[in-house]
Amino acid sequence: MTAGPVRVVLADDQPLVRSGLRLVMADHPDLEVVGEAATGAEAVQLVRDTGPDVVVMDIRMPGMDGIEATRLITAGPTPTRVLVLTTFDEDEYVYGALRAGASGFVVKDMALNDILAAIRVVAAGDALIAPGITRRLIADFAGRPPQRSPRPVAGITEREREVLTLIGRGLTNTEIAEDLFITVATAKSHVSRLLTKLGARDRVQLVITAYETGLVTLPG
């Protein structure tokens, strides 16, 4: 993320939602709304035109939905991140949005300050999933094809493999540090190296990798 305010595009087919978020952000100089879209197609075009840091993306919009728009935006040449904001928190939407490349998923009944905090987290290069969704998401990954025996993750150390496993289980950096008897700073360093070595955009992709390589399974 470059210096200066976080540049945001608001994509939602409800004008009241967009105007409400815009008004709230106007009181926060570190956030700047650079465009609004009522459809997924408009959001994709706005990203091409304005190159924002973050798109706050609704899922259900007429024509191109938010999941397809997210897929196109995150595959594009600009380093724009997507924070999905929706009233729908069913697993299918969470999974679809994150698979499409979203860096975060929050629901509209969250406090506005929490939504603004989520925008900042995603803009800073981290990933965020609303409380209450993470565990269901992890269970969803574990239930999607039958678990295979773990396959090696090339190019990482044994300690990094341990950290990746704990990330897949949904642990925070603080919890990882406690589990492995290391400092939080060391845990953060391991996470950073994993992101680089595995070419992962953010922590969400590390969770996906942990499940797809069989490092993490659910008991039973």
Q: How would you portray this structure in words?
A:
The chain has 220 residues and is of the alpha/beta class. Helix content is 48%, strand content 13%. The chain has ten helices and six strands. It has helices spanning 15-25, 40-50, 66-74, 91-99, 112-123, 134-143, 158-168, 173-180, 184-197, 203-212; strands at residues 6-11, 31-37, 54-57, 81-86, 104-107, 128-129. A six-stranded parallel β-sheet has the order 2-1-3-4-5-6, sandwiched between helices. Helix 5 links the parallel strand 5 (104-107) and strand 6. Helix 2 runs parallel beside helix 3 and helix 7 (158-168) packs across helix 9 (184-197). The radius of gyration is 18 Å and the shape is globular. The model has no long low-confidence stretch (mean pLDDT 83).
